[in-house]
TrEMBL record:
Pfam families: GSDH. This is Glucose/arabinose dehydrogenase, beta-propeller fold. Gene3D superfamilies: TolB, C-terminal domain. Keywords: Signal. It comes from Devosia enhydra. It comes from the Bacteria. The lineage of its organism: Bacteria, Pseudomonadati, Pseudomonadota, Alphaproteobacteria, Hyphomicrobiales. Residues 27-46 are annotated as: Disordered. Residues 66-393 form the Glucose/Sorbosone dehydrogenase domain. InterPro entries: 6-blade_b-propeller_TolB-like (IPR011042), Glc/Sorbosone_DH (IPR012938), Quinoprot_gluc/sorb_DH_b-prop (IPR011041). Residues 1-22 form the signal peptide.
Length: 404
């Protein structure tokens, strides 16, 4: 039933998309990697620029920081950040970084691994509990794991993690250094969505289609790491009960919209980055159905972009933006962006603003910040905060606001 609903939604998008949109000027001007591939419906890629774009002021809040991966705002306006090598710091609203927080478990920081996302528990103001994901070193390899802990701060601007416990492990363990994901997003009910990758290599990535494997999935778990009782595959023989959706490649962007629904953006191959609204039990195709091509120029699998058994992406990019970090914007500081998704771009070195019309992308806008964007957050002051990274150098935190 859920798959039929997803396919019906795609049909409706096809029927009601405005054909004129495809003729307008688009944010993406580069040549596609797979020019023969056709979108499944109008507006699925290369949406037009909005008629007017706001003037954005960009201010550097903090720079010369360690290689950052994620940012989360604390109730007092300070920022809790993770670093890829495995440290956490608290950064004041004025941009001062405190000492390293103690108690962080060991991470495998090779390749794309490291200390990854961080999220505050819904009751953080009373519990001081945080959740974080990391590439966990294990016997025989590594994998994405989720831990929770109490954050205890001190007067020096640092602190410690206490009562640290790993509540969830992506299985199977694999000896690789790519496609760990991951983002952590709490549902309105207080359950935790966990996005992961499929470990990139040709052999393990096929497990994105395997309900007995934790590769290439969105999970939905309780705050104790247990499967939520009404997850779609609870009671299915051979299926992991924590799975929410399947057929994903490498998701480093996730956020709830204004209705509390989960949206993700995942890295595609050479072409084929995808915006999805993952729904319970739905298969999103990877690696059997995808836009784009292999990095060596060959087709991915049989080169199939559409199949009745898998859901189409809401939107895709070819060439890619290399997405990382995502926020739903619901403030009047940058009024034209209200109701839009803000997505970080590593290759595009800026942010991508997706203006929505219902569940379809109506317009795409880009803001160049001159650096790889690893994470994006909407701040308590209504500004957009952007975490940048250098491949082998320091990070910065930028504040984007409406230019007065």
């Amino acid at each position: 039933m859920m798959l039929r609903q997803a396919l019906l939604a795609t049909t409706l998008l096809t029927a009601f998309a405005a054909p004129a949109l495809a003729q307008a000027q688009t944010a993406e001007q580069g040549a596609p990697n797979a020019p023969a591939q056709e979108p499944a419906f109008a507006g699925q890629t290369r949406a037009p620029l909005p008629a007017e774009t706001p003037q954005i002021a960009i201010e550097t809040i903090a720079d010369q920081l360690p290689h950052l991966w994620a940012l989360e705002f604390l109730p007092n306006g300070s920022m809790l950040v993770t670093t890829k090598p495995g440290a956490m710091h608290i950064i004041t609203p004025e941009g001062e970084a405190g000492p390293e927080i103690t108690g962080v478990p060991e991470v495998d920081a090779r390749g794309q691994g490291g200390l990854l996302d961080v999220a505050l528990a819904p009751d953080f103001e009373t519990s001081n509990t945080i959740f974080f994901s990391f590439s966990e070193p294990r016997e025989g390899g590594n994998g994405t794991s989720v831990a929770k802990a109490r954050l205890v701060t001190d007067d020096a601007g640092g602190g410690a993690l206490e009562d640290v416990s790993v509540i969830f492990q992506q299985m199977p363990t694999y000896d690789g250094d790519k496609h760990f994901g991951s983002r952590l997003v709490f549902s309105p009910e207080g359950h935790l969505y966990v996005t992961v990758g499929e470990r990139s290599d040709v052999e393990p990535r096929v497990q994105a289609q395997d309900l007995g494997s934790g590769l290439g999935k969105v999970f939905r778990i309780t705050q104790d790491g247990e499967p939520v009782e009404d997850n779609p595959f609870v009671g299915t023989d051979g299926a992991l009960p924590e799975i929410w959706s399947l057929g994903h490649r490498n998701m480093q962007s996730a956020a709830l919209d204004g209705e509390g629904r989960l949206w993700t953006v995942e890295h595609g191959p050479r072409g084929g980055d995808e915006l999805n609204k993952p729904e319970a039990g739905v298969n999103y195709g990877w690696p059997e159905v995808t836009y784009g091509i292999e990095y060596n120029g060959a087709p991915v699998g049989d080169g199939i972009t559409q199949d009745a058994e898998t859901a189409q992406p809401v939107y895709y990019w070819d060439p890619v933006i290399a997405p990382s970090g995502m926020a739903y914007y619901d403030s009047d500081e940058i009024a034209p962006w209200q109701g839009a998704f803000i997505v970080g771009g590593l290759i595009t070195e800026g942010i991508v603003v997706l203006h929505m019309d219902g569940d379809q992308v109506a317009f795409e806008e880009r803001v160049d910040v001159g650096a790889r964007v690893r994470d994006v957050k909407a701040g308590p002051d209504g500004a957009v905060y952007v975490v940048t990274e250098a491949r082998s150098g320091p990070s910065s935190i930028l504040r984007l606001s409406s230019e007065q």
